[in-house]
Amino acid sequence: MGQNVEESKERREFLAIVFLCPLWYAVTSSSNVTAKALLSDFPYPITVTIVQLTTISLFSGPLFNLWGVRRSSRTLITWNYYFRLIVPLAFGKFLGNVLSHVSIWKVPVSYAHTVKATMPLFTVVLSRLILQERQTRKVYLSLLPIVGGVAIATLTELSFNFTGLFSALASTMAFSLQNIYSKKVLHDTGVHHLRLLIILSRLALFLFLPVWLVYDVRNLLYDPATGGAVHISSRTLNLLIFDGFLNWMQNIVAFSVMSIVTPLTYAVTSASKRIFVIVVTLFILGNPVTGTNIFGMVLAIAGVLCYNKAKYDQRQAEKKKSTLPKYVSPKQNGHSNFVVNGWVNDKHRLLAV
Hints:
By secondary structure, the protein is an all-alpha fold. The chain is built from eleven helices and two strands. About 35% of the residues are buried.
């Protein structure tokens, strides 16, 4: 019986890699190319983000109901918890998306994704500051090629823009924080990860509609250059709709892959996706690059792969140390374990958003 279950899991992971990963790569690449084309003609990143959040909010509910995604969590979410963790998560989601759009607008997509390869660095630092997590020496050493690769790519980037660099770094930090706290929310509440996606998208849309109305809508209604409203062409409108749809699909496919494969497989496929996006956007958008610039990109991505392997080895070592159950007082329930009748259960599942 146990062998059949294991074989079923392996089959699902194999099918996810064969079918869902190529789809994920294709959708992500298309989304980035579309966003670059859109923002080049329509430099309003807040509006682009609002359209994406609206698309997720409108279309996800009916689809998840059709899929039978559960609505309720195992515990009641109090208002205190909601305002302490979920509202900041929604804020981080919006901020991360806007800054990501600014980076794509200001610098080539290939360079923006190279800078985003620094996410392990932010994750390690923030986990140390927030959760007091210590890493192995291998994990720390794996960060060196990431930092070095991004530094080389930055110094040799022909279309360098400081705003684009700062936005890419800030969005990466925002997404790292979002990953850390999303894991905590999923662990604490048991809410389905796809339902959390809807909650955060709808809350972010509600919170930032006033910002959009005051900032972008005002600028769209009055253009100082013409003295009238900004003309939105049918091409721009089509790109806005298509970009929102692609972003929605990207979120669905990413969460589907995440829910099927192991954490290591997801980390490796995510790094491979970044390589695919860089290559595709270099080929389609044709921004000029040098050999040294490409070397920096490759070095940064290689560092990410080394980081994933180092984290996997660290998790395996921790599992070996905790093969025997350890009795603790129910009052000693920590942030990373469930305590059931005084016994530690380390088999809970944490998924990043």
